[in-house]
Amino acid sequence: MSSAPHRSVRAAPPRPLLIFDGNCHFCRRWIERWRELTAGAVEYAPSQEVAERFPEIPGEAFERSVQFIDTDGTVFSGAEAVFRSLGKKRSRRWMIWCYEHVPGFGVITDTAYRLVARHRMTASFFTRLLWGNDVRQPTYFKSRRWFLRSLGCIYLIAFLSLWTQVDGLIGEHGISPVAKYLPAAHDQIGGSAPFLLPTLCWLNSSNAFLHFLCGAGAVISVLLIAGFLPVIALVLLFVLYLSLTIAGQTFLSFQWDILLLETGFLAIFFAPVRWRLGAASDAPVSRIGQFLLKLLLFKLMLMSGVVKLTSGDNSWWNLTALDYHYETQPLPTIIGWWAHQSPEWFRKFSTFFVLFVESVTPFFIWAPRRLRHIACALLILLQILIALTGNYCFFNLLTIALCLLLLDDAMVGSARGAVHGPRSTRALPERLFAFAAVAVLVVTLPLNGWLIFSAFKPEAAWPRPIAAVYSYVAPFRIVSGYGLFRVMTKSRPEIILEGSADGIDWLPYEFRWKPGDLNQPPHWAAPHQPRLDWQVWFAALGTYRQNPWFVGLTKQLLTNTPAVTHLLAHNPFPDKPPLFVRSTLYDYHFTTLVEHRLTGAWWKREERGEYLQALSLKDFRSD
Q1: N or C end of the chain: smaller count of CB under 10 Å?
Q2: How much is the pTM?
Q3: What percent of the chain has pLDDT over 90?
Q4: Helix (H) / strand (E) containing 503
Q5: Could you write out the DSSP letters of every residue in 410-443?
Q6: pLDDT in tens, 515-551
Q7: How do beta strands 43-46 and 67-69 pair?
Q8: Distance of alpha carbon 145 from alpha carbon 124, whole angstroms
Q9: Alpha carbon distance 241, 478 (integer Å)
Q10: How many separate domains does the chain show?
Q11: What is the overall mean pLDDT for the chain?
């Protein structure tokens, strides 16, 4: 802290007064921000207008630095003047406390202030470069409405997509019936099963109840899109989707399902406590809620980039990952086929672009507004490119929705919303939600910090206190780690299911979206997620013993269960079920441009061997 004695003036102002150089472009910009921050607690005036009122202050002092005159007549200058003026707002008092009590803080800030004061033109240039013409605190009323309505659309997509598949996946006659899963879990885990597997399906696991969960989720999603009862809608949507995620077992274990739950939970504390999303001036934007969601975006993108570099997979370091990715990803698009044909230099550049956007750009989320907007543009561009070349259901839309939080009202072309200072009286629900948001921040911040650290040091052991807290919140999917394609899949094994009525002639089952027929081009499924097609891709990377649900699929095909065959594009036994079903493993590859022109095929394949031997119903009699 500065040891220089403070001046005093006889004509003390009735309110604290900060005097600045009115001819300084840099000063005028930042004074507007400070004026807004102090919300009437401090007056601001250019020295050219008020200097004569305070003859005790030399003229060169006004030219050298800002002067802050308190109501007792004491004069402060430079960095201390700035901190004392901002400290008139309760939330900023920590600044002057640090100046007065933290060793070295005053010296460093005084030195920085003098450096800026001597180079005001340069400081003004960088201010304009990084912030633009307005350095006042940005408002996010419009982006909040866009984000919440977008989240409603994504919830709607997720519920509707699952609704069309739920009977075949986890219904009473599905591949992995939840009615069998939950009792088995209770027998194995005991009385703690409902806590470890929090789902409403403990109350009822019938097909009708699963349809009710999906239908209720769709209806409430529409309410959120329309802006009605946003907080209540978000709470209900979280409970409904969590219930379906737990009940869905392996079919709802994808990172975007978890991301939707974490986003939906945090959005509860970001949404206005109002009956409807209305005018910008009606409800202040929760800074804590916004911070939690921005932290989620930061964690999602940074972990996705860092885990690639710490996984030990050299294809990310030598920039050859995209030599494999387009071909080996679960459900490529036809654009992905064309991207695979691109020159090697372009694939290397694309790999570098992915690593840069995921590993470097996330730090711009916390940067001044123009860098933040650049980060938003790059992140959205990456998601669009991913969506064009691969089917990742609603993941790309959800990430783009999170990116909308980086756009302030001025950026999206609307007038600045009202800036709300502290209110003397706040409704009880608002106070409760403010306290709840603080509690969520306190609980989740250490967990998120360690998850991000674990991306850099994957072998590091969890500290016991953090691990204990994580064990309590993990079942609810509200704090999670992320990192798609940590290790790039270098080949594409595909399981081809075939049935036979006599054990001699075999006919293939065709899936709706995953590769099978070599002449069928890659399909476009997003934002719908064909969950069986996805799980078959994962099953091919292991064995059927590691994927017990696959045996359940075989059993349902042997009985021609309608709910399951509905999930397929073609059932070669529509009238009478087959006597046998077998599974063969093939290596699939994209054809080249020349091969495609000659044969019309989009794929080529080589047989690798048996995945699951031929089974008949008598093999399941013990069930």
Answers
A1: C
A2: 0.92
A3: 81
A4: none
A5: TTTT-PPPPPP---S---HHHHHHHHHHHHHHHH
A6: 999 999 999 999 999 999 999 999 999 999 999 999 9
A7: unpaired
A8: 33
A9: 12
A10: 3
A11: 92
| Helices 464-473 and 428-456, packing angle to 10 deg | 120
Lookup: tokens for 584: 């063969």
Give the tens place of pLDDT for each residue, 197-230: 999 999 999 999 999 999 999 999 999 999 999 9
In a domain, 482, yes or no: no
The phi and psi torsions of 370 (rounded to 5 degrees) equal: -70, -40
Asked whether residue 522 falls in the same domain as residue 551, the answer is yes
- Give the range of the structural domain holding residue 36, as residue numbers without chain letter: 17-131
271 contact partners, CB below 8 Å, separation of at least 6: 144, 148, 230, 231, 234, 289
For residue 176, what are its two tokens? 């992995």
User: Is residue 424 assigned to a domain?
Assistant: no
AA letter at 379: L
- CA 530, 533, 534, 540: dihedral to nearest 10 degrees? 180
Reply yes or no on whether the pLDDT at 2 is more than 50. Answer: no
Sorted by sequence, the CB contacts under 8 Å of residue 280 that are 6+ apart come out as 139, 141, 142, 409, 414, 417, 418
Indicate the residue among 131, 149, 172 that finishes a domain.
131
Q: Which residues, 6+ apart, have CB-to-CB distance to 562 below 8 Å?
A: none
d(CA 34, CA 39): 8
The DSSP symbol for 462 reads: P
Map tokens 């991913």 to a residue. Answer: 386
Note whether residue 48 is domain-resident.
yes
